[in-house]
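Narrative of activities, Objective 1.

The group set out to show that a structural description can be obtained from nothing but a protein's sequence at a throughput compatible with the screening campaign. Below is one input-output pair from the validation batch, recorded exactly as produced.
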Amino acid sequence: MPTHVPTPARRLRFLLPLALLLVWLALGGALGPFAGRLGEVSTNDGAAFLPRSAESTRVAQLEKDFRTESTLPVVLVWEARSGQVDGALRAGAGEALAAAAQVPGAVGRPSPLLPSEDGRALEAVVQLRADLGPDTKEAVAAIRDLAGRVPGATAGVAGPAAVLADLSGAFAGIDGLLLGVALGVVLLILLLVYRAVLLPLLVILGAVFALSAACAVVYALAQHGVVRVDGQVQGLLSILVIGAATDYGLLLSARFREELAAGQDRYAAARTALRRSVEPIAASGLTVGLGLLVLLLSDLTNNRALGPVGAIGIACAVLSALTFLPAALALCGRAAFWPARPRTDGKGGSHRVWQRVAELVGRRPRALWVGSVAVLAALAACSPLLDARGVPQSELFTTAQPSVAAQRLLSAHFPGGSGNPAVVVARADRAEAVTAAAAPVPGVAAVRPYTGGAPTDPPVVADGLVRLDATLTDPADSDAALATVARLRTAVHAVDGADALVGGYSAQQADTRATARHDRTLIMPVVLLCILAVLVLLLRSVLAPVLLAATVALSYLATLGVSALVFPHVFGFSATDPSVPLYGFVFLVALGVDYNIFLMTRVREETAALGTRAGVLRGLTATGGVITSAGVVLAATFAALGVIPLAFLAQIAFIVAFGVLLDTLLVRSLLVPALVHDLGGRVWWPARAAD
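Output recorded for this entry:
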């Protein structure tokens, strides 16, 4: 019997995907470790959250001239358990303070012990070097230990250095914890939805390869100072890449299964699936990437940092989905869906549930889209209630943290702004006039010159400038403190020849809020214009892109409305971080448009043969299952951000997860198909198409 000899064409069909697979396996092995090394080039410097051009940022730069090195204050507080501070407690606190000043990383002399007006507590300040990096956590831990040894007192350590140390703890292990939770959730959902063993593993592997490549590129760029990475950016990068790569993988694998069901062999099915999927996947990646890059227009460093880093991650997700996964599916064929077997009757893209949904859309399109818009509009009406004035320090973390408890202890006995004063920088020859103008400002408890040591030391003068510390009566992150800063600025700016500027934590919060409002006004319209441009090129239409963008924007406002109700009444957040609405917009609008891209590219494809109304029903039936699965996976992936105990990320997690589900289950499943069906061929204007 003659031996079968494969033809060169058949051999090439096998060797090409095999080569691609081997290349990705090699890259995965070489680049995989970088997914756990971003922490080496990550910084959680608080300056990253300051507006570049704000008055408080200029003060922060000038403050460095008053010290031999930049420092972060640690505020120690002791509350007497017996009711009043006695000599023994004062002596013990003094010894602990002297020891704290010798902790590695501490610089200069500590402040004297300051008793509270009620006589029940003591306060002091130790300065730590600002460039300690990860060692800040160890230094603060050592100071906490020393402060806690004072007998007869309840001790606490607060201030910027303590908050930074707790932030470092919150981000500790982010590489393994967040990645493990996200991948575990995605894998579980895929196993339940597809009831297959190999396909979920292939999709997950593609996402891991994409993340490894993205982390390697970001690591190299961060090492050379081209991009900036902090714990927040690091966590969002992982979630973005895993979510996007999984979504793209599901779209392509669903089309592959559909082509197998149509009777094609595995190689032909992989080629057809790739050809049919490359346009929507590339368009989706472009919309998300452009939306992220628009963040470069922000005046906040941490916002600008996410732009290029996130865009790199999305590019790697697209590359993996269009190279690794088609190659893996071509080699595995029907085995990828084992133990299930793709249908062979040409109906692989159909599903009973979505057939019924399509029938409902076909029967009552106008009632469906009008009803959907009414529901979204009702929810959107609550969006102005979302308070984006900033999360107070007491709510910065979602779990109990020592710095938060210490700040409460400090505020119970001292002016709310103790240890965190408003900083006034002015010309030295006008220091007395500036002090006289600042002292009577309502909300200011005291104004003292900065001496770098004891209060009796002479003030430090640098380049003809002097620094004055204004202790506020209210907590530094309160609305009252921010109002005091506004009054203080008005008062000191009016001193002729002083060139006075006001900075410090409260001023930074006020400037950050103003910058966040400006960023939203500038960036949101630009993101919409970028998305519209991509949709116009993709769909060769003007009306359809405008309608799609409008539905997603309405969905975003509805999500903000729900968040405005849920955050205070369910999660206990009194306010939202100023950047949350902007991040939510970029993620939701860009990612929400993805599902409309997946649907409408299929509708356009079907319209050529069936007409618009039949085409939208066929497109909904064919893509309903995979898009819903992708939406659930993406929502679950973002929900994984909740494992990091930070209010900002918890708020982002809810907004994106809820918004994606709303977009997937209502906007893309009912609103858009019903609207397109009702408009018929007019939806492709100015192009012409049959109804």
